[in-house]
Amino acid sequence: MADTLEYDLIVIGGGPAGYAGAIRAGQLGKKVACIELERAGGTCLNWGCIPTKALLKSADLYQKIKKSETFGITVKDVTFDFAKVMERSRGVAGQMAKGIEFLFKKNKVDYFTGKARVIAAGMVEITEGEHKGKFFKTKNTLIATGCKMRRIPDLALDGVRVMTSREALANTKLPKSIVIVGAGAIGVEFAYFYNAFGTKVTLVEMLNQVLPVEDEEVSKVLQKSLEKQGITILTGTKCENFRVGKDSVKVDLVTGDKKQEVESEVVLSAIGVVANIEGVIADAVKIELDRNYVKVGDDYQTNIKGIYAAGDIIGPPWLAHVATFEAVSCVNGMFGHGKAKRVTKFPGCTYCQPQVSSTGLTEKAAKEKKLDYKVGKFPFTASGKAVASADSEGFVKVITDAKTGEIYGAHIIGSEATELIAEYGLAIELEATVDEIHQTIHAHPTLSEAVMEAAAASLGEAIHI
Amino acid sequence: MADTLEYDLIVIGGGPAGYAGAIRAGQLGKKVACIELERAGGTCLNWGCIPTKALLKSADLYQKIKKSETFGITVKDVTFDFAKVMERSRGVAGQMAKGIEFLFKKNKVDYFTGKARVIAAGMVEITEGEHKGKFFKTKNTLIATGCKMRRIPDLALDGVRVMTSREALANTKLPKSIVIVGAGAIGVEFAYFYNAFGTKVTLVEMLNQVLPVEDEEVSKVLQKSLEKQGITILTGTKCENFRVGKDSVKVDLVTGDKKQEVESEVVLSAIGVVANIEGVIADAVKIELDRNYVKVGDDYQTNIKGIYAAGDIIGPPWLAHVATFEAVSCVNGMFGHGKAKRVTKFPGCTYCQPQVSSTGLTEKAAKEKKLDYKVGKFPFTASGKAVASADSEGFVKVITDAKTGEIYGAHIIGSEATELIAEYGLAIELEATVDEIHQTIHAHPTLSEAVMEAAAASLGEAIHI
């Protein structure tokens, strides 16, 4: 096999897990290649986190401009070019993807596009694409193929009437109306985005709250806010009997005993993800799976020595930052740079306005675990910075051990919530107490003071409420 | 003395130190009164931090609207009503001041307006205002009278041609041109603000960099950015020979051997503060001062038992958040709720765009102390969130102990820098290492990832640069 290339590590998949793992191996001086099916950066960078944030930035600005009178600014004739909004988002994704390719070069990662398959322990083949037929001999393999959007059963994805977030990100025509199925982070962000630009949005969630993984109290405030913004929200509701027509889709929304028909120009499916596993592992390679996700041990190794997996392909929570951490930790362990560490603590974010973020246990989870907990809460209406910014919706909520003050969980809804959660993330990582946060001087006036005051509130010592 | 009221604590001054100390005493069940000369909230809330943030929010929005085309949004005829911008700022200050009065009531703090004077240990008198002649007997007194703006010697403050930030905050007419003397946080913020609305701004600093207390590298990037925005900046420059005319002020700006005359509609003095000490202490009470600031010990007690002082009146760093911490800590110690703690670690913020924030040592200070330090730096151009927001100016810089990774200082310039610094504040308080920050999963995509990547960079392990 003259064409066989030899590596210390082959990474399959160039998303947040794959590219980070490959770069880390490069930093450690290893001979490494990354094989990506589409474009460096994966779903997150090309069809997820990054391009949606670009869209949301346009939506935020458009909303702010509409409220500019509050700030002494008068604007006439505010218009938007939806195609340009979308185009900018693609541009940002393109720029970031080029950045990853640059990082590959800088860190001496060989980069191949194509579909890769593990054909044996220590052997990988490219089965599709321009490098089809290339074989790689490798000491280690890291499977990081991630996930793709789950489709609604029996509803064909046509990219016109029926979309997932992926098709929506490429769609340059603003729909007049949309039914969004699923009110997780993706569903909520698209609902906020389309509504901001004037689409009639119906957001449907099967479970009893929007953002089902978040604290109930947060979800309630968010739902109220989104409804006030004009979004129709139906929780505890199933979608049945989709009828795709030429210009619209009809669907029955079933809430308990009630059934209503809704007609919209587009249906967006945001009902979660499924593993990208098809064709990744040759039949002969008996890698253990669990509901199509790759099973790994504490060191991210599969049941087959030398074959590792990290990121969305090993199962929930399907978050880019968790994927990156896993892959880097896996590669560090693989090459003896410290011990690999599985993820137990991580933040989650939703980038609508008001933003939502959290880390650790919800109050409900603390209750279910029968923990002896206290709650500290601080509303942004009592924050000088929030009032000065005319952006005082929401609150910070911290759940602590009633005896020791150790932090079980933190939940933020409001402006910049996604940035503010970082401090609680560090606090939980370091097993800090709320008293330690309270004793840390926070700059005035900042929203981060609310993080401190919520901690103080759990001790009965908040000054500003 | 039938009119004598008896208290556990009399607080003189209702600013960030005074009101917080009084509220804390109320929380501890003490009989407490707060005497404020003007309006609850003090300079910070009425004439400083809070109203300026309201102004800066208007400026930020106006600037963003001008760039809205980038985001696919078209706006015609953007105008502003400067009087309305100023009016909103006053409204925010008024609202927050009312909030403090509400907190006084809630925490059973008796609130008096008037000028107070310590006439003996345990005795306070109101010497001016509606309550003039009221006497208070008190177990403890907390002097928290703060500071006021320093005036330029031999230059009369007329509120029209010559102002400090206080007069500027009440001035509803946008000046065509302004010379701002002093490029500390206040000078820089006003320079950014006026320039954003079209004033021709000349910012003059005697020392060799804008924001002289900040890291040199940060100040250089900021100066470049402000100059690009249109502000004329002269560092290492003295102002001499002000000539106030009917419609303008002329001043000689002397940089080394060069002298140039500049004429502007207004001169804003932002050259620091002086203690509000006049008339606060009766001559008979021999409280020890140091250059007009009240000298205190580790428990914030002056040389006279039962008389304490906290906040700006005890000297630098003259920051609202430090003042609040000091007063609360002082009151806690006073009433046996833990031990009072003097401040050694605190953040500093400047709210222009790009924002600047820091905590701990600058690189120069680390060098001067001959510390064995490392630098970790991460530019926002490499942050997905910053690029998606089209806001990728600046960087995060962390200075660490080369051996242990303990954090000596952190410096941020960029969007939301003032919020991002909180995490480093907690890290320094907890004596965390950069490795611990690096091992904490930060949400993707957020600007807070740059905080983590700078930490990783100091270890040679940043993924995205």
Automatic annotation (TrEMBL), chains A, B:
Locations listed in the record: Cytoplasm
Pyridine nucleotide-disulphide oxidoreductase dimerisation domain location: 347-455
One Pfam short name: Pyr_redox_2
Catalytic site: 444 (proton acceptor)
UniProt: NAD(+) binding residues: 182-189, 205, 272
Predominant location category: cytoplasm
Catalytic reactions on record: N(6)-[(R)-dihydrolipoyl]-L-lysyl-[protein] + NAD(+) = N(6)-[(R)-lipoyl]-L-lysyl-[protein] + NADH + H(+)
Any GO BP: 2-oxoglutarate metabolic process
Required co-factors: FAD
Residue numbers binding FAD: 53, 312
Record bears the keyword Disulfide bond: yes
Residues that span the membrane, as ranges: none
Enzyme Commission code: 1.8.1.4
Disulfide bonding pattern of the chain: 44-49
Keyword annotations: Cytoplasm, Disulfide bond, FAD, Flavoprotein, NAD, Nucleotide-binding, Oxidoreductase, Redox-active center
Start and end residues of each FAD/NAD(P)-binding domain: 7-327
Remarks, miscellaneous: The active site is a redox-active disulfide bond.
Record PANTHER family: DIHYDROLIPOYL DEHYDROGENASE, DISULFIDE OXIDOREDUCTASE
Similarity section: Belongs to the class-I pyridine nucleotide-disulfide oxidoreductase family.
NCBIfam families recorded: lipoamide_DH (TIGR01350)
Protein name, entry field: Dihydrolipoyl dehydrogenase
Species in which this protein is naturally found: Rariglobus hedericola
Underlying gene: lpdA
